[in-house]
């Protein structure tokens, strides 16, 4: 099998990874790279320059995982210097996809020079066209839930779009024929967040076209999930594409004896509070809460719980710092028990801190796995289609979390957030006890020493067979 140089093992594979330019995706690809490097495989990881410093500390095998930075071209309409989804407002994401497409010549050169056995990608749907000539097999590795792919990104979900005409919410909410769940679905007002899936953009077509092409043309589809939580969705995707679907399992870093520790400023601050009493709130790596009013409802809802809280959120649209967006008098009222921080915190380590007892999450798929592995109570405030589906999976199917209630306009109130947090944190709450019990059962299954390893070993074997085929 191929090799980037020589790592001395004849059965080791050389793998090139090129994830979508978003931290949630890059992090998931890197966790998987660590698992494969642990088995002796060599990885060349492509990423934008700006992402390197943030992602580098997660590399547990620097001798086997090499980063290669890619220049992300400036595309008209994108903020100057934008390289990742964190730099781009949600409604401009398609332009970042255009920029990623323009990296094709550079990636082609890297492929020709390195001739890997395998290429992993998710968004760059042209990878199979440039990988085949160098003899590499391709794996479309999906870091989002199988449910969200099954609902919108399978051939049966194709829609006849009349150019320029937006689909009605009722139309968007209809699951494709054969979709295997009646619980993991969207209400009409929630389905409006899916309109981007079929909307056409000049030069790149629609999100749907890109994802279906990516999954049609690869040699195998892979998903960061497990049969125990999403088996029926994986089977449906496999039948829609008539090709193997490999599952990696949760792919989370295990506790390393010398892993980095939580920044002292947070460790010290959290240590002031009783075990299990602090509410931690984070909404992933991308700008999420767009509206200043919703940002303020969130702050006021946490204030109203009376509990200590740590919020790590990007500022909403229209302001450049979180401080500017805080409600009047908020900082004075919560001083000593509540912090709203606009930067990056080490989420897995915060969740692991003994004082933290509740996680208010947007339910990105990475956060979903991290929260399932933690012993925190979970309150879900999903913002977009995929996160709403993940939330349904957690709240309705697995019954491990409580989702915040929203009005018909899709907005949540400070009261609904306060109620949701209290329902899981108040002693003697029936809802709280039920989700705690179910969460504990799932945590035991997922954190069993053989569980994740079993998935990775099977996944590795799938890859070896694919390369040999
Ligand atoms: C092209 C522009 O993309 C839009 O970006 C949205 C975000 O997409 C995330 O990925 C998915 C989202 C959803 C979803 O919201 C609902 C669904 O039913 C399915 C998905 O699937 C995916 C997805 C699936 C498979 C895969 O391999 C992926 O890489 C993604 C993504 O995580 C996030 O980074 C994007 O910001 C944007 O709204 C814009 O308007 C579109 O034009
Ligand atoms: O302050 C922060 C914020 C986020 N994070 C980490 O960043 C990652 C965020 O990933 P999530 O998947 O939860 O959320 P994102 O919104 O960033 O990701 C997006 O792309 C990847 C998909 O799987 C998600 O479903 C989608 O929402 C998590 O691993 C989280 O631990 C931090 O470590 N600190």
Your description of this structure?
The radius of gyration is 22 Å and the shape is globular. Strands 3-2-1-4-5-8-9 form a seven-stranded parallel beta sheet, with helices on both faces. Helix content is about 40%, strand content about 15%. Helix 17 links the parallel strand 13 (about 355-360) and strand 14 (about 375-380). It has 21 helices and 15 strands. Helix 6 packs parallel to helix 11 and helix 13 (about 290-305) packs parallel to helix 19 (about 415-425). It is an alpha/beta fold. It binds ligand LLSD7J3U and uridine-5'-diphosphate-xylopyranose. The site of uridine-5'-diphosphate-xylopyranose has 24 residues, from helix 1, helix 16, helix 17 and helix 18.
Give a concise summary.
The protein contains 21 helices and 15 strands. It has helices spanning 23-38, 52-55, 93-101, 104-114, 127-131, 146-152, 169-173, 188-191, 195-198, 207-217, 227-241, 264-270, 292-305, 322-325, 330-334, 347-352, 365-373, 385-397, 414-425, 430-447, 449-468; strands spanning 14-18, 42-48, 65-70, 118-121, 137-142, 200-201, 205-206, 220-223, 245-247, 278-282, 309-312, 338-341, 356-361, 377-380, 402-403. The protein has a seven-stranded parallel sheet with strand order 3-2-1-4-5-8-9, sandwiched between helices. A six-stranded parallel sheet has the order 12-11-10-13-14-15, sandwiched between helices.
Task: Provide key terms for this protein.
binds uridine-5'-diphosphate-xylopyranose, 469 residues, alpha/beta, single chain, 14% strand
